[in-house]
Amino acid sequence: MPLDEDVVASIYRDHGAALRRFVLSASHDPQLAEDVVQETVLRVWQHTPEITGSLRSYLYRTARNIMIDNYRRARRRPAETLESGLAEPAAAVPEKVDELLNRVLVEEALLRLSKEHRDVLVALHYRRFTVNEAAVQLNIPSGTVKSRAYYAVRALRTILDEMGVER
């Protein structure tokens, strides 16, 4: 299949910086991050007609799989493992990448919520406020906090389903 430079350029333009930040947060190696981003964009470009749901979610999952594959390949070659700085235990890298991926996808899903729903979820689940503390912080009645939290979680589940995130 011939390379459609416009599609590749579009993927880089719209998602490259976020994807690079995601990979860098896991690898801390700018060259490795660039290699993973390039391979990710190429793989996603090859499968574009088959992608359902969020392209960015698909990009992150593809980058995650590439990072784990690279780590496993490096583990099979001990000399390369030591040079690349990937001397973490075998299970630690996939878990770290999965944790980062989940964090990025949830943050992206939260941004798609209304401000009111997002504010309530952040107050209750990230800041660990009680319902009454969230009500004071947000300057709304505690019953409204409960109601918004209920509908916010439902909306978040729908968004995560649309993004293809497994729960």
UniProtKB/TrEMBL annotation:
Keyword set includes Coiled coil: no
Pfam family, one: Sigma70_r2
Domain RNA polymerase sigma-70 region: 11-77, 109-157
InterPro entries: RNA_pol_sigma-70-like, RNA_pol_sigma-70_dom, RNA_pol_sigma70_r2, RNA_pol_sigma70_r4, RNA_pol_sigma_r2, RNA_pol_sigma_r3/r4-like, WH-like_DNA-bd_sf
Alphabetic keyword roster: DNA-binding, Sigma factor, Transcription, Transcription regulation
PANTHER family according to UniProt: ECF RNA POLYMERASE SIGMA FACTOR SIGL (PTHR43133:SF52), RNA POLYMERASE ECF-TYPE SIGMA FACTO (PTHR43133)
Family: Belongs to the sigma-70 factor family. ECF subfamily.
Protein name: Sigma-70 family RNA polymerase sigma factor
